[in-house]
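A.,

Following up on our hallway conversation. Structure tokens first:
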């Protein structure tokens, strides 16, 4: 009889339990049983309540701040390694701390590099993630990294809108590559916002490179945190004559007064994924699930089939 590959086991960190359930359902499996014991001082301990010896396991967890989310992932990986799992894949829809991907001034850490090493030391034999803040973070790992693009979710959505005079925009110079990739797929024009920051999350000045008059603009970015950049860019574009401004951002951090800014801004719509648990406090926010994308890739990884189509913008 031909050898049949045993099915993998799927587990989720507490911060990604809801997404984990969706991914497991799309995969056609049940979410594995893991419990967290907590001490009164806040220390916690994960425990796999079923055998994972010799199995391929997927541990689902986004590592957005606070630091407990990252710690959960690390402890889960270490527990799986010590329980003799054969393959341990960290499925990280959002790879946190990625904005610290280089030294932009003296005496600062490169947090993304540190976390890559921590994940490998903890036991990860593969990483699956989506829309890294900087592509070069893949090079921080010695293990395989599957870097997926949320464009496979966003492009069909945008095409279904059938917007006339469509224009793709990047809210900063760093996102120009992403904007050009979207514009190529949608055969549209591109504009770029040039911004200068006074400090982190504070914009001092913003200028627009390109014409938006009479156009339906779609801003594209990898994440939205305080929403200061997106809302300022949207207001500027409406002032310059744009018909409408939407934004698509993969990871909805939405910290501080982000929801209030979005509600008061000229943005018509903000489309995000559920890579991070988000409270939908604004009627302008639409959430597209990435569960099907991750379930598909996990299935392909397990059965050793190509996933190159998920890398394409």
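Then the amino acids I'd put at each of the 313 positions:
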């Amino acid at each position: 009889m031909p050898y049949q590959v045993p099915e993998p086991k799927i587990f989720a960190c507490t911060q990604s339990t809801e997404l984990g359930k969706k991914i497991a359902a799309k995969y056609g499996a049940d979410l594995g049983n893991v419990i967290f014991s907590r001490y009164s001082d806040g220390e916690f301990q994960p425990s796999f309540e079923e055998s994972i010896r010799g199995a391929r396991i997927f541990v689902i967890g986004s590592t957005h701040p606070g630091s407990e989310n990252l710690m959960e992932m690390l402890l889960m990986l270490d527990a799986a390694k010590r329980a003799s799992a054969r393959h341990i894949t960290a499925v990280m829809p959002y790879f946190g701390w990625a904005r610290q991907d280089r030294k932009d001034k003296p005496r600062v850490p490169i947090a993304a590099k540190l976390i890559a090493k921590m994940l490998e030391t903890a036991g990860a034999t593969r990483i699956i993630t989506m829309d890294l803040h900087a592509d070069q973070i893949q090079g921080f790992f010695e293990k395989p990294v599957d870097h997926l693009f949320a464009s496979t979710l966003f492009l069909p959505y945008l095409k279904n809108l059938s917007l006339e005079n469509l224009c793709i925009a990047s809210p900063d110079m760093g996102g120009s590559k992403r904007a050009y990739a979207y514009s190529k797929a949608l055969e549209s024009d591109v504009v770029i916002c040039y911004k200068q920051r006074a400090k982190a999350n504070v914009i001092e000045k913003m200028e627009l490179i390109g014409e938006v008059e009479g156009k339906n603009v779609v801003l594209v970015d990898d994440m939205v945190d305080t929403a200061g950049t997106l809302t300022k860019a949207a207001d500027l574009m409406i002032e310059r004559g744009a018909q409408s401004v939407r934004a698509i951002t993969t990871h909805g951090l939405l910290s501080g007064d982000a929801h209030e800014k979005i509600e008061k801004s000229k943005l018509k719509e903000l489309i995000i994924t559920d890579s991070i648990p988000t409270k939908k406090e604004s009627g302008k926010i639409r959430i597209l699930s990435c569960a099907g994308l991750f379930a598909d890739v996990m299935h392909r990884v397990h059965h050793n089939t190509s996933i190159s189509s998920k890398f394409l913008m």
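Residues 149-287 form a domain with the Rossmann fold fold (CATH 3.40.50.2020). Curious whether your intuition agrees with the design.

B.
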